[in-house]
Design brief:
Length: 399
């Protein structure tokens, strides 16, 4: 028998859970299919959020999933120049975070089906049919068919369902960053109050990281673009450097877990909507838990409106794209320009740029919306070191 629902969400991800919750709150009948047997298990490598982004989504931080509170982040240049940004943040227990949001969605009325893999999505003449199979089913068992007026694809960076729906969701898929996060254990390593992000040729195209997770635990990670998926050649030296900087004997350091994945940090969303379908989160090239949740919320609200009007056309669902662009497009474009310039600069140039902001109270000087922040950055550069602006010319290098 074919099941029928107003809205089917693929993936109980941060984006999918928000989308489902807002669709149900708007009056739609919503089901999520999640291929993991248990929400949050195995755990996704993402391990931190900042309060600002969560508040922008109308979400309060809940102590139940917080492992350690931090006061902000330090951005560090190759020569060690440091920019400090004070902004409250949290090291997460990601399994508990996912479970918290799943429970919130269920309480609102969402039905979550765990252990169900959406193996195909066909979408013709405005009719969506999902082929859904229990992950424990025998290989020859026929998939169950589910019809949905609207499908919200939230199945992460490797989304196969967006491909089956014929959508090219990212403008620059070649720019997915490949990242690995190690959780390490060493005496006192997790007690600091700032996350640290290091940029330069040791992590081409993006960053290496240190995140205190409380007491004797911390996470160290490396994210690299355009160097293939195997980034172990960058990770090993980074762990050595962390041990040196934090005064740890490497032989006494224990690696508790290692998790890898693709981060669509500056891939820029492209085709994320068609008749009856919206794509959100990593699957749509929207990176970061906060951004994924914000996109999910907008898509969920749009789905509820579409259901109440009985209009599932591309025109109707494009409200999601317009509202998302209104809120976040400039930020994504500025992010891409910044990270592309960084990828093309050499270490000396990055150091020169950091000199402008070092010792500045960045949190109070750079404010407003993204455009305003861009102008504040330019004004600071003009005042302190006009030649630094020329470094932005790196963006136009053919590298
Ligand atoms: C190593 C690494 C570290 C990161 N760290 C951070 C961080 O600290 N903070 C931050 O904000 N961002 C971080 N990110 C980025 C962040 O993880 C993503 O932006 C965020 O997880 C986006 O989530 P999502 O909602 O798109 O989907 P995901 O979290 O990727 O979830 C997708 C879900 O869909 C399910 N699924 C997939 N296929 C199917 C299917 N066919 N049928 C049913 N279910 C399916 C999966 O099981 C999964 O539960 C990190 C990324 C990486 C790779």
């Amino acid at each position: 028998m074919t099941e029928k629902t107003d809205v089917a969400v693929i993936g109980a991800s941060p984006a999918g859970l928000m989308a489902a919750r807002y669709a149900v709150l708007g009056g739609a009948d919503v089901v999520i299919y999640e291929k993991k047997e248990e929400i949050g298990v195995p755990c996704h490598p993402a391990n931190s959020v900042y309060r600002g982004m969560m508040s922008a989504n109308g979400e309060k931080i809940d102590r139940s999933y917080v492992r350690h509170c931090i006061d902000g982040m330090k951005l560090v240049s190759p020569a060690g120049r440091t920019i400090t940004v004070e902004t409250p943040g949290y090291a997460l227990d990601k399994e508990k975070f996912d479970k918290f949001y799943a429970e919130k969605a269920e309480k609102a009325g969402v039905r979550i089906e765990c252990g169900y893999d959406v193996c195909n999505l066909s979408s013709y003449f405005g009719e969506n049919v999902l082929n859904v199979k229990k992950t424990t089913a025998a290989p020859d068992e026929a998939p169950q068919k589910v019809k949905a007026d609207i499908v919200i694809i939230a199945d992460g960076i490797f989304s196969q369902t967006a491909v089956s729906a014929g959508l090219r969701t990212m403008k620059h898929p070649e720019d997915v960053a490949w990242g690995t996060e190690l959780e390490i254990e060493a005496p006192g390593i997790g007690e600091e109050k700032f996350a640290e992000y290091y940029v330069g040729s040791h992590a081409p195209g993006w960053k290496s990281t240190y995140l205190p997770m409380g007491k004797d635990r911390a996470a160290v990670g490396v994210y690299v673009r355009r160097h293939g998926k195997d980034i172990s050649g960058f990770l090993d030296p980074w762990v050595d450097r962390i041990c040196e900087m934090k005064d740890i004997d490497r032989s006494e350091m224990k690696i508790v877990s290692a998790k890898s994945g693709g981060d669509p940090i500056i891939t820029i969303p492209d085709q994320i909507c068609k008749s009856g379908i919206m794509v959100v989160g990593g699957a749509a090239g929207q990176s970061g838990i906060g951004y994924a949740m914000q996109a999910g919320k907008i898509a969920g609200e749009t789905a509820a409106q579409a259901v109440s009007k009985g209009d599932f056309s591309k025109r109707m669902l494009s409200q999601y794209v317009y509202k998302w662009k209104d809120a976040l497009w400039t930020e994504h474009i500025f992010g891409r320009i910044g990270l592309e310039a960084l990828r093309k600069m050499d270490d000396e140039e990055i150091d020169e740029l950091f000199e402008v902001f070092e010792d500045e109270d960045v949190s109070s000087k750079i404010h407003g919306n993204t455009f305003g922040q861009g102008l504040s950055v330019m004004a600071l550069m003009m005042k302190k070191k006009p030649s630094a602006i020329l470094k932005a010319g790196a963006l136009f290098r053919n590298r």
